[in-house]
Design brief:
594 residues; alpha/beta; five-stranded mixed β-sheet; four-stranded parallel β-sheet; elongated
Length: 594
Amino acid sequence: MAVEDGAESPGTSPEGKNNRSLFASLSSASLASSSKGFQTSPLSRSGSAPLLPRTPSRPDVPEHIRKEFVRYSTPLNGPMGRNNVKVLHKYFKFHRYIDGAENRGVALTKLIEIYRYAADHCADWHLTLSSINLYMINDWLIKPVTKEHNSAMAEHLSSKKLVPTWFISHWWGEIFADVLKSIRQHMAVRGLSNNVTFYWLSAIAMRQHDLDSDIWSDLRDISFYKALRLTRFRVLFITSSGSSSALCRTWCAFELAMCMDRTSPSMDIAACGPNPELITSGIVTSEIHGNNYLPGRGFHSKILREQNFPAAIMKDALTFNFLKTETSIADDKFRMLNCVTGQPLDGTPAVEHDKYYEMSRRLRSFLTFHFWQRALAEVSMQEAPRDLTMLEAMAKAVAGDWWRRNLDMSVAGCNLLDEEMVLLVVKSIPSKLVRLSLDLQHTDLTNESLVTLAKSMPPSLSEWSLDVSGCGSITDDGILSFLQALPDHFQKLDLRLFNTQVSEGVTVLSKEPLETMRSWAGLSLASDQKAMLVNLVKAASGSNLSPDQLSPAKHNRRQALKNMLLLQPARLKDELREQIEAELEELGEEDEHR
């Protein structure tokens, strides 16, 4: 969650320790720049122990005088007024201190409690419920109730350490009700349980009265990075379109930059609004079950689920510029700019720098990458002639991360029957990749398209994992042509050919090292190729390969029938259950659920 007015963390960096730039920190490379003399800053964002304990009353001051002093030294009304604070302490009692801001996750039900309180008291705050955002809740609720104990809001909501499972990045200016709807939609689509799913939000996890204690020489020591690491870099990015959105906030960009070097980025993006839409990284649990029941069904379900995601947000991602992002506190942006360039945090940031350009290109690629499958699926379903203007721009943006070396990309379920769609996928692959995992399941890929892919890979690529399962047009001849067109610089190839028209021999061949595949493709006589495949099948039959590996279609059917038997008895009629059990027997396996 993008922190605009604050968040915190324990400890202060010792004098003389070096600061690291954003990219140097994430890549474990040190910088020479130092932050001597700058020990605290609003860049601080964590906290494990209260650094501003409540001041005990002096024993020599009479109690009635002390009470009078407190009464007349604090206002009666307003956010920090005695009336507001008194009511807040009745609803949100302090439980105990929880070490480490990264350990202060929050459940959706607790966020709803905060919203309900705001709904009941917004009239007293002279605010309308439809306009309340996290800035207002921070001013009227979080800061007043946490001031006495110098605590975090999470310490008033739970007495336990709650390790977060998802990290939320968003702008505090979004309507709070819409943010909660986005989180609820995320839980519903992902099938998450409220009892075990905890989100990390800086407004809740960090001590708002002690924000200056989280300045460290290494970004990996700040609470943001620690929370991301605990969530295994699973991010829920909540944004809307336009100039007032998370895409225009520096803190959000800073948070996402900590994730962009991941080989397989896992970020779900929610379009914030009264009716939130969600784009997920990969398919969710229900769609996985759909694939097990009927191969390819889950991918189709994902495409239909995401088709209403606003195109305006995708267009905003194409124009992302790190220098044009904003913060509520000007010093925060100056320090982050210095952090990116590797300069002392308290110095004057450079007006121009190559690191700004790198940050903008990489984050533009990172954001567009998560929209790529949804945009490609939408256009691929249109009838020719198609308008490819936006897709061309998105492909260029995704490929614009010249610094990326490893990538897992999935466009499963998109229609790649036409050559122009295949070329768009090729254009989206960064040119300096060393390792690529490309998921093209159920894309109607043809033999000719396979050859196009083989000839178009980046020259730096040495390891390639290609999944074309479910592409029913691919045959042995297509695999032969593909291997013959494969450049010599490839060192490793992993092919997955389930539910295609390739023979059993080629299926076995795809599990062999690349040298064996090249040897087969290099044989000039068809009889020699066939003989080699027969020998491979015989060798595999005597090895540890399971029958499922040799017969993927049979395995998939069997697995689908097994999954149907896992349904609740009330949802599966006896007649249908008997048919499933009979078919399992025909497939050579007795039912385990009788």
